[in-house]
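Example 334.
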Amino acid sequence: MLKLLDQMALSAGAPLQVGLMAVALAGIAFVTFASLRRFNRPQRPVTESAGAAACRPWTPWRNHHCTRPAPAAGDGHGRARGEEAGQLLGGVSAFQRNTAPLVRDELARLAREGQRPTQLFLTCADSRLVTSMITSSGPGDLFTVRNVGNLVPPPGADAACDSVGAAIEYAVEVLRVGSITVCGHSGCGAMQALLGSSSAPPGAQTPLARWLRHGRPGLARMERIGQLGRGEVALADRPVADDVERLALINVMQQLEHLMAHACVARRVAEGRLVLHGMFFHVAEAQAYVLEPGSGRFLAVRPDDGTPVAVCAAGPAAAPEPGKGGVTEALEAI
Ligand SMILES: [Zn+2]
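Predicted structure in complex with zinc ion:
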């Protein structure tokens, strides 16, 4: 997690070129997709044709390649039929042209030696959550599981939900990762659906509705502790915005408990070989928060956080020794 939070701090604050220098100095061969693209791309003006939005990093589809005005006829989202496929193919083509030559050696090494990620990162499928961007990670770094609502079905909940359990088992037993991070985010549609489901009339049990039942323990937890959730969950530097944000935070804590219900996870945590972390990413703020050990407070990761200020070690929360926080102990276990 130390490495992960180092990466997040770098992502949050340092100019990309400075980040590249730091990466190079550290002897790490790989740099991120966007960094490479920006680093090697001839300097372009930050604005394109008249009427186009400003060019922003990490939004190549919208601003680097697709600056045509939105078509009049489309699917109701300002997109013409067939445009999506063109965007995807154009992006893949750009990868082959610009990035593949730069990462081929590193990918060849990973292919030859096999993956050895040290961290399992479990987050929502939301398109605004770009895991490699917010962690400044690249190929081989994160074993990633994504689903609607960053949910972790408890073991035995339903054989149809073995996908997440299988990934957890593989990461813990085969890859022997040292940490698992559950990351929620602001504006999560799954949290909105859960909040709306309690008052909605019973409807057809679609796959989405069935899947979201794994978020119901978090919803029940929030309802138990009251609308404001005081005393259990908070952001350190500002009030929790609304119920959607509150449920997203509580859901992270709840899913960490679901993780601990998996035998392989509980065993490795007890052995001191695995640490669990909670994280929340606020999309509009471009700000990551990490769950403080033994509390429900999510602390903002700062650009200069060379060492992490907080992570959540699930399971029994030991009181930190004077001068040595639970965070430090957790990190030393990795
Ligand atoms: Zn989501």
